[in-house]
């Protein structure tokens, strides 16, 4: 931020770490009777420019009427503390936050006018720098949802999100990536796909997210098997050695504005197509991918409710990806029920291991879906002829080379781990006889989260029945895994009140 944009007056306070976790929201806490607040007319929710040495952040002011914070101190949330690289007693200089010209672009979009690439770059630069409050972020997200982004705007937003973060480059001519748009519990195909592709000589530097509203993200699941908090240098080292990695994307600055926007979208329950496309593609482009396979599960309680919705998303995503030289292939998959048996980080990890180790009790649907996605990637990359990718992927899994590669990747990332086991379990049983004809994926996800997933890695659900199974009264439908009896009882209460989670007819 240019010096001439700062307020002329800056007052100094000493920093105090509050260990106040506010996700990525930078907050500064000051006394209501602080002389600086009074002299500068600062009130709760004011936006303040805070400087610590050479670093600065725009923070939201909250105030407290208590003596445990001295008049000369300013308390900082973890997000503000980390961005400022502060230490106890560091000198903080505070002033009114400068006006953000990009907010005029947001207001223009709110009135129904389209934005160009320059406008999106201004907005995303300020968002990535933490200069927007949650209210301002919500205004931008809402403005881009009420009037849907057109293709040009999708390209501009994607490009802006790539530009503000780190970008990886690789020596390989073909760099693969894989993504699932989500909405389906379990479905932890990514580690299996990465192991298959890397074992066959493809480069696949996979960065994945943690759960936002689901019981587990790929990074949460992988963290029960190996370290995922890798730096960019670590990612390069692992990929150079093994051809692939399975890292947490939040540890590196690839499309850093994306996680901020996702948090607001989830709070508003907005899942607009344009933002989804920019979110997915910006991370793939920033990671240096040249080819990507996308899994689009379709079902009444999945994110994509119809084949028409899925095909429209695929068409638009392909157009935007092509503008960045990114080749795509889409797999339209069954989103009627969870994939695999486990729902929750450790339980999903055990499903992954059973498939890679070729155990007889491995969930066949997880195995088949991973092979299908890996086969599509092999054909897209030209590693297999059209129609033969499936067989090549299956061979890599069946002859054990994928399992060997997965172990090597885990060791390169810091060593393989044993997934934890929950302290307590309890079954949810059927109350009637018949055939299982429908499963509510969203309610199952909710049940797993009430059990403690993903915060408690061992928590979640083990699914016992599949669509089409014949059910008798008292049959276990799922087993709840939790760390404490309170979580078990809370989850059981939810299950009893939502018996339509499983539709049994006949």
Label this structure with key terms.
disordered N terminus, alpha/beta, 506 residues, four-stranded antiparallel sheet
Q: In brief, what are we looking at here?
A:
By secondary structure, the chain is of the alpha/beta class. The protein has 18 helices and 18 strands.
Write up what this structure looks like.
- The protein is α/β, with parallel strands linked by helices and 506 residues long.
- It contains 18 helices and 18 strands.
- It has helices at 35-40, 78-84, 102-110, 117-128, 134-146, 151-163, 190-199, 218-223, 232-242, 257-268, 273-286, 307-323, 345-356, 364-380, 389-398, 401-412, 441-450, 485-497, and strands spanning 11-17, 27-31, 47-52, 55-64, 73-76, 91-96, 176-180, 204-208, 244-248, 291-298, 327-334, 342-343, 424-429, 434-439, 460-463, 470-471, 476-482, 502-505.
- The strands form five sheets. The protein has a six-stranded mixed beta barrel.
- It starts with 10 loop residues before the first strand and ends with a strand.
- Residues 1-9 have low confidence and may be disordered.
Give the topology, please.
Blueprint: E1 11-17, E2 27-31, H1 35-40, E3 47-52, E4 55-64, E5 73-76, H2 78-84, E6 91-96, H3 102-110, H4 117-128, H5 134-146, H6 151-163, E7 176-180, H7 190-199, E8 204-208, H8 218-223, H9 232-242, E9 244-248, H10 257-268, H11 273-286, E10 291-298, H12 307-323, E11 327-334, E12 342-343, H13 345-356, H14 364-380, H15 389-398, H16 401-412, E13 424-429, E14 434-439, H17 441-450, E15 460-463, E16 470-471, E17 476-482, H18 485-497, E18 502-505
Parallel strand pairs: 1-5, 2-4, 7-10, 8-9, 10-11
Antiparallel strand pairs: 1-6, 2-5, 3-4, 3-6, 12-15, 13-17, 14-16, 14-18, 15-17
Helix pairs in contact: 3-4, 3-5, 4-6, 5-10, 6-11, 6-12, 7-14, 7-16, 9-16, 14-15
């Amino acid at each position: 931020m240019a010096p001439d944009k700062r307020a002329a007056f800056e007052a100094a306070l000493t920093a105090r770490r509050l260990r106040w976790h506010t996700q990525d929201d930078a907050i500064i806490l000051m006394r209501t009777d602080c002389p600086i607040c009074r002299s500068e007319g600062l009130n709760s929710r004011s936006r303040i420019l805070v400087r610590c040495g050479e670093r600065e952040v725009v923070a939201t002011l909250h105030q407290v009427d208590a003596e445990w914070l001295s008049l000369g101190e300013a308390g900082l949330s973890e997000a503000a503390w980390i961005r400022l690289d502060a230490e106890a007693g560091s000198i903080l200089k505070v002033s009114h936050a400068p006006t953000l010209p990009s907010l005029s672009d947001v207001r223009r979009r709110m009135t129904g006018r389209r934005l160009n690439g320059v406008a999106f770059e201004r907005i995303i630069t300020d968002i990535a720098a933490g200069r927007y409050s949650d209210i301002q972020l919500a205004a931008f997200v809402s403005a881009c949802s009420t009037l849907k982004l057109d293709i040009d705007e999708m390209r501009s937003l994607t490009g802006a999100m790539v530009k503000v973060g780190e970008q990886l480059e690789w020596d390989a001519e073909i760099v693969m990536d894989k993504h699932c748009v989500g909405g389906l519990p379990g479905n932890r195909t990514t580690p299996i796909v990465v192991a298959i592709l890397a074992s066959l000589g493809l480069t696949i530097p996979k960065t994945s997210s943690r759960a936002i509203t689901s019981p587990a993200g790929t990074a949460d699941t992988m963290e029960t098997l190996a370290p995922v908090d890798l730096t960019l240098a670590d990612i390069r080292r692992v990929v150079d050695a093994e051809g692939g990695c399975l890292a947490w994307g939040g540890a590196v600055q690839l499309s850093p504005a994306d996680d901020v926007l996702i948090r607001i979208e989830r709070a508003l329950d907005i899942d607009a197509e344009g933002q989804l496309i920019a979110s997915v593609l910006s991370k793939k482009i920033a990671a240096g991918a040249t080819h990507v396979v996308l899994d689009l599960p379709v079902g009444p309680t999945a994110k994509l409710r119809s084949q028409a919705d899925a095909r429209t998303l695929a068409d638009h995503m392909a157009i935007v990806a092509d503008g960045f030289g990114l080749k795509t292939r889409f797999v339209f998959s069954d989103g009627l029920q969870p994939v695999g048996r486990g729902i929750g980080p450790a339980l999903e990890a055990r499903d992954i291991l059973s498939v890679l180790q070729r155990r007889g009790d491995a969930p066949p649907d997880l195995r088949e879906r991973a092979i299908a996605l890996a086969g599509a990637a092999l054909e897209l990359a030209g590693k297999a002829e059209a129609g033969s990718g499936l067989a090549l992927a299956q061979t890599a899994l069946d002859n054990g080379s994928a399992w060997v590669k997965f172990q090597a990747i885990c060791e390169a990332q810091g060593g393989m781990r044993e997934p934890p086991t929950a302290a307590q379990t309890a079954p949810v049983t059927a109350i009637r006889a018949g055939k299982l004809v429908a499963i509510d994926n969203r309610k199952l996800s909710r049940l797993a989260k009430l059990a403690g997933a993903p915060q408690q890695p061992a928590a979640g659900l083990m699914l016992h029945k599949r669509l089409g199974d014949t059910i008798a009264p008292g049959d276990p439908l799922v087993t709840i895994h939790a760390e404490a009896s309170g979580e078990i009882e809370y989850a059981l209460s939810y299950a009893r009140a939502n018996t339509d989670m499983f539709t049994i007819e006949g």
